[in-house]
Amino acid sequence: MTFQVYDTTLRDGAQREGVSYSVVDKLAVARLLDEFGVGFIEGGWPGAVPKDTEFFRRARTDLDLNHAVLVAFGATRRAGLGVDNDPQVHSLLAAETPVVTLVAKADLRHVQRALRTTADENLAMIHDTVTYLVAEGRRVFVDGEHFFDGYRDNPTYASSVVEAALAAGAERFVLCDTNGGMLPSQVTAVIADLTARLGVAPEQLGIHGQDDTACAVANTIAAVEAGVRHVQGTANGYGERPGNADLFAVVANLQLKLGLPVLPAGCLERMVRVSRGIADIANIAPDDHQAYVGAAAFAHKAGLHASAIKVDPLFYNHVDPQAVGNHMRILVTEMAGRASIELKSRELGLALADHPEALNRVTKRVKDLEAAGWSFEAADASFELLVRSELPDGAPARPFTLESYRILVEHREDNAVVSEATVKIRIGGERMIATAEGNGPVNALDEALRVGLARHYPELRDFELADYKVRILEGSHGTGAVTRVLVETADGAGRDWTTVGVHPNVVEASWGALVDALTYGLDRART
Question: What pLDDT is stored for residue 316 in this prediction?
Answer without folding.
Answer: 66
